[in-house]
Structures are given as C-alpha cells and as structure tokens.
Amino acid sequence: MTAKLVLEGVKRKFSGAASAAVDGVDLELAAGEILVLVGPSGCGKSTILRLIAGLDEPDGGRILLDGKDLASVPPQERDVAMVFQGYALYPHMTVRENIAFPLKMRGASREAQSEKVREVAGVLGLDKLLDRLPGELSGGERQRVAMGRALVRAPKLFLFDEPLSNLDAALRTTLRVEIAQTLRRLGASAIYVTHDQVEAMTIGHRIAVMRAGRVLQEGIA
To answer: What is the reported pTM?
Structure first.
C-alpha cells in the first residue's frame, strides 16, 4: 500500500523562537516515491516528519495524505510508520516481540503476527535473531529491527528520521543500500531525513534541500 502526500504552505514556529522551524513549506510525494530531505541541523527536516506523523501540529497550511486533510486525524490513525535514529525498541522484548508489537496492538491473531514477522525478518536478514533481546544486538541489527517494526505494519507512508546517524561509517554504507533496496522492492512511499549527501543520493528518487525552515531546491537524485 502506497500513498500520495502533499504539504501546502505548512508552518511551525515554536514558542520563544526568533524564526519559524518550518516556514511555508510546499512539498509533494508521489505514490511509491522516496523523497529525501537534506540540510543542516535545525533546518526543519525532523519537524516536518513530526508534523506528518501527528507528533506535533502545524501553525498553518495543510498536510494531505491521499487527498485527506490530516488536521483532525490522530497519530495512531494516520497509517504512517516512523523510524527514529535512536531505534526506540522495547529492551525487555525479544526481536520477534518488538517487530510484532504493532500487529498485537491492532488485535491481529498470533498466527497472523507470526507469519508477518517471519516474512519481514526474512527481508531484513533477522531470521536467526528473533529470540534475542535488543541488548544482545549490534547497532546495525537494532536498526534493522526498528525497520522491521515499521515494515510489518505495511503503512501507507514511511518516515525515516536520520536512522543511520548513530552508526559507524562502514555500517552506514551497508545499511543505506539495504534500506534503498527494501523500499524499492516494496514500492513504498517514504520521506527520509539526513544531512549526508551520499546517503541522500543512494536512497532517494528525489532530493529536497532545506535551510532555515524552507525548501530551497528540489531535484532528481
């Protein structure tokens, strides 16, 4: 399942800030497209993801997913999955349980959970790690589990907030290729945030360059 996303004049200014974190941003993401937002820290990239996910609210403008205005849609009903740079895994749960958690919250049967977890684990090379705890995994393995928890939901839209920034250079090189291949194989719609231009070129179909809350230019990767 993929979706078209449109941002129309989206604004967000935090209390006490001298300028807007997001200043009238217009963006369009086609179904099945991967758009990468690049730019320096503090330019508004991550704020845009949070606004799309419903973790924060815009002060102006509209966010449309498949033509539906998300203003009145709570985060849990937006059919959006977000992958963070800090993994956000449950330390007391196994890899299997972490990946299955979104399905469990939806009330899926144990059989359905098991089948979907096996499928996602196969895609991400986690088959032999399903019974381990996050503390027993490497950084790259933990990030794969975080991706698995997003993939298992089969959302309309994936949001990636600098997921590789905590990893060493060699591992980033490997995982950026894996992420690009996985998203393309799924035909997924995704917005990926990074400050790494090589990462942006590897993963995205299209790149938008941001600075000071605005999109300065867009182009094909």
So the answer is: 0.89
pLDDT of residue 1: 59
The count of C-alpha atoms lying within 13 angstroms of the C-alpha of 177, restricted to the half-sphere facing its C-beta, is: 5
pLDDT tens, position by position, 83-108: 888 778 999 999 999 999 999 988 99
The pairing of strands 34-38 and 22-29 is unpaired
135 and 26 in one domain? no
Residue 157 burial by CB count (10 A; 0-12/13-18/19+): exposed, middle or buried? Answer: buried
Q: What is the pLDDT of residues 133-165, one digit of tens each?
A: 999 999 889 988 998 999 898 899 999 999 888
- Indicate if 201 and 103 belong to the same structural domain: no
Q: Is 115 left (phi over 0), alpha (psi -120 to 50) or beta?
A: alpha
Three-state secondary structure call for residue 108: coil
192, containing H or E segment: strand 190-194
Q: Could you tell me if 84 and 147 are in contact, meaning their C-beta atoms sit under 8 angstroms apart?
A: no
* Side-chain-side CA neighbours of residue 186 (13 Å): 27
| Residue 137 domain boundaries | 93-154
Residues 99 and 197 in one domain: no
Using CB atoms within 10 Å of the CB of residue 198, give its burial: 0 to 12 exposed, 13 to 18 middle, 19+ buried: exposed
Strand partners, 136: none
Contacts of residue 141, defined as CB under 8 A and 6 or more positions apart, other chains included, come to 126, 129
